[in-house]
Amino acid sequence: MPALIFRKAVQTDLRTLILLLADDELGQSRETVSDPIADCYIQALKAIEEDQNQLLVAVVEDDQIIGCMQLSYIPGLSRSGMWRGQIESVRIAPSHRGRGIGHRMIEWAIENFRERGCGLVQLTSDKTRPDALRFYSSLGFAPTHEGFKLSL
After folding, report:
1. Count of alpha carbons within 13 Å of 99, Cβ hemisphere only?
2. In this predicted model, what pLDDT tens digit does every residue of 113-129 receive, in sequence order?
């Protein structure tokens, strides 16, 4: 297994992270790959960095970013004030898929949430991504709720 480093993403990572997010049919329609980097991404990273309950993770192998994910720590009143961990925007470079890296990323995220005192980890995945749905099920995630989104 290759050595992976999980670290907080920084502004110099933005171009690579945006390319990872745009690297599929859905991402191509949602992301803006441009030079210079669109200000919306710079502002989003700034907001993430300033929020102690957000962590944008760059996954690095041999000094190259090969994956990313965003972790959110969500306080809640229900379930006796339990904190939840939310995983979003999980991406792995195409050249690194099929090597167990996604499994290691999710395991790392779960342990991170456990260390922060979260009692539940949740995520959503687009219904048009059957491989991702199978992947998360194989890790023990159960489709216990129906999710809804409303674009504004």
Report:
1. 14
2. 999 999 999 999 988 88
Q: Is 72 helix (H, G, I), strand (E, B) or coil?
A: strand
Which alpha helices (DSSP H) does the chain contain, by range?
14-21, 25-30, 39-50, 78-81, 101-115, 130-138
CA–CA dist 11, 58 (Å, integer): 11
Q: What is the pLDDT of residues 76-135, one digit of tens each?
A: 999 999 999 999 999 999 999 999 999 999 999 999 999 999 999 999 998 888 899 999
Structure tokens at 151: 């674009």
The token duo for 13 is 């990572």
β-strand partners of 121: 85
Token pair, residue 60, equals: 């690095």
Give which of 86, 76, 81, 22 is closest to 48, Cα–Cα: 86
